[in-house]
Design a protein that fits this description.
The chain has 150 residues and is an alpha+beta fold. 36% of the residues lie in helices and 29% in strands. It has helices at residues 11-24, 54-67, 90-99, 122-137, and strands at 2-6, 39-48, 69-75, 80-85, 104-113, 141-146.
């Protein structure tokens, strides 16, 4: 599924434009909030990680948990550690990490799928990537989330 967040002064126009993008690529738009049952709103913090120091990793883990983090995961693509929190713990977790001397590159509220990521078939991969790009290029769209893994 795909979640689209938009900031608009005209809900009907934006919904119509997003619906037209979906139709163009053979998809359909469900009712508002119709797929949220399969997603969770979370806080995400990215912490720079350029060391293999296990003691420092333990310090990061402890600081994150003390701040209210639920989970941590290493992001290989950008040498960072993703720290996941409940939305209401985002600020406290950021503060705990900063106080412990860790550089928080970014923090945001985001959506995370509850289930397994889907792997689009190779023949539909281009259409899926195209719809994501078209949605991202729509002027009122502020964020696009999906449960596909490429």
């Amino acid at each position: 599924g795909i979640i689209v967040e938009a900031l608009t002064d005209n809900h009907s126009r934006t919904a119509q434009e997003i619906r037209a993008i979906a139709r163009k690529f053979g998809a359909h738009m469900g009712a508002e909030n119709s797929i949220l049952w399969n997603w969770k709103r979370i806080g995400l913090l990215k912490v720079s990680w350029l060391t293999d120091d296990e003691a420092r990793r333990d310090d990061l883990f402890t600081a994150a948990l003390n701040g209210g983090a639920d989970d941590l995961e290493e992001a290989q693509e950008d040498h960072s550690i993703n720290v996941f929190t409940e939305p209401h713990h985002l600020h406290a977790t950021r503060l705990a990490l900063s106080t412990a001397g860790f550089e928080v590159d970014s923090s945001e509220l985001t959506w995370r799928p509850n289930g397994e990521l889907i792997h689009p078939a190779s023949d539909s991969l281009i259409d899926f990537q195209s719809i994501l790009e078209a949605l991202d290029n729509q002027s009122d769209v502020s964020a696009v989330y999906h449960d596909a893994q490429f």
